[in-house]
Amino acid sequence: MRTRMVRQQIQARGVQSVAVLDALRRVPRERFVPAKVREFATEDTALPIGYDQTISQPYIVAFMTELLELQRHHRVLEIGTGSGYQTAVLASLCDSVHSIEIVPELAARAASALADLGYAHATVEQGDGYQGWAERAPFDRIIVTAAPREIPQALVDQLEPGGRLVVPVGPALGTQALTLVTKDAAGRLRRQRRLDVRFVPMVRAADRN
Questions:
Q1: Cα–Cα distance measured from residue 11 to residue 73, given in angstroms and rounded to the nearest whole number
Q2: Is the pLDDT score of 147 beyond 90?
Q3: Assign residue 138 a region: left if phi > 0, alpha if psi is -120 to 50, beta otherwise?
Q4: How far is CA 196 from CA 42, 71, 132, 176, 199, in A?
Q5: pLDDT at residue 1 is higher than 90
Q6: What Rg value do the Cα atoms of the chain yield, rounded?
Q7: How confident is the model at residue 209 (pLDDT cuts 50, 70, 90)?
Q8: Average pLDDT, the chain
Q9: End-to-end alpha-carbon separation of the chain, Å?
Q10: From CA 33, how far away is CA 112, in angstroms rounded?
Q11: What phi, psi does 195 have (nearest 5°)?
């Protein structure tokens, strides 16, 4: 079923990276969704995972991962662990993945699922993604799976020169712009709008108190 999902929903829509396609075939999406929606795990749709959060549709996971142009040695920061599915895809492609989730229950659940599946090199931390992870910085690649109104400066600062940042940017309601930010060797930034998307809003720690 995952092979069919990749062929019909992802490859047919233009994702070409052999490594990304292989990762989507291998990572069991059904292990990262609640039991009540598990039968829909290979369908091309976002699914609820509790706490007003969702797991992204497989195509979006693949598209964002391809934009990162990952190599095995890259150090990756993910903002918004959620279910842990995107984390597992990243960990299938590189050896150092650090993920931040603001909802404690989701962070614990994702960490458990990742450990059960053998992704020992994927580290999950409960915290505020707007602050990034300064103690682990800099990062070669950063991916954000919730939508801030503006790109947090901390994430830009923690991006290594030559790095790539993929983030949906825009209002909490309505369409957001999936944006690719690249930083050159001199620290100059280039922003490219790549796709219209709809993500849950990125929440600050202060908003949860």
A1: 25
A2: yes
A3: beta
A4: 22, 26, 24, 6, 10
A5: no
A6: 16
A7: low
A8: 94
A9: 42
A10: 13
A11: -165, 145
pLDDT at 99 over 80: yes
Residue 83 makes CB contacts below 8 A (sequence gap 6+) with 32, 33, 49, 53, 55, 106, 109, 110, 113
Token readout for 177 is 């712009």
Torsion angles phi and psi, residue 36, rounded to 5 = -70, -15
Whether the pLDDT of residue 25 is over 70: the answer is yes
The answer to whether the beta carbons of residues 128 and 200 sit under 8 Å apart is: no
Residues annotated as catalytic are 56
pLDDT of 108 higher than 80: yes
Residue 41 structure tokens: 């795990």
For residue 164, what are its two tokens?
């790539």
Residues 21, 37: contact at Cβ < 8 Å? Answer: no
Q: Do the bridges between strand 47-50 and strand 53-55 make them parallel or antiparallel, or are there none, so unpaired?
A: antiparallel
